[in-house]
Amino acid sequence: MVRTHADEWHIDPNRIGVLGFRGGTPGRGLSTHFHQRLYDPIDASDKLSCRPDFAVIVYPGYLALSEQNYAPNPDIHPTEQTPPTFIVQAKTIRFT
Question: Nearest to residue 57, comparing CAs of 26, 8, 19?
């Protein structure tokens, strides 16, 4: 949708990114599964790429599986086509 309106909104259609917070699942999913359409194209905007040009994922969840000694999540398939991604993660440390 954003690429369809890029001229109207005065933005570069080749510099559109995604930002995901608190689990980052939608942003992460779009960055790694952009080629999988969940519905048949309805109009011209559905025929444009939905691959983001970059991604910012803040506090991502489920990148690794805690019940499997933090093995990489097999449902996430980064490839050479995965956009450049900045990941922010932190851990609370309690001092007593």
Answer: 19
- pLDDT tens track for 33-43: 788 777 888 88
Higher pLDDT, 28 or 9: 9
Helix (H) or strand (E) holding 9: helix 6-9
Residue linked to tokens 């398939």: 77
CB 85 within 8 A of CB 56: yes
- Supply the pLDDT for residue 24: 59
Strand order in the sheet with 17-20: 17-20, 54-58, 85-88
What is the b/e burial string over 1-26, where b = at least 16 CB atoms within 10 angstroms of the residue's CB? eeeeeeeeeeeeeeebbbebeeebee
pTM for this model (two decimals): 0.77
**What are the angstrom distances between the C-alpha of 70 and each of 42, 44, 73?**
40, 41, 8
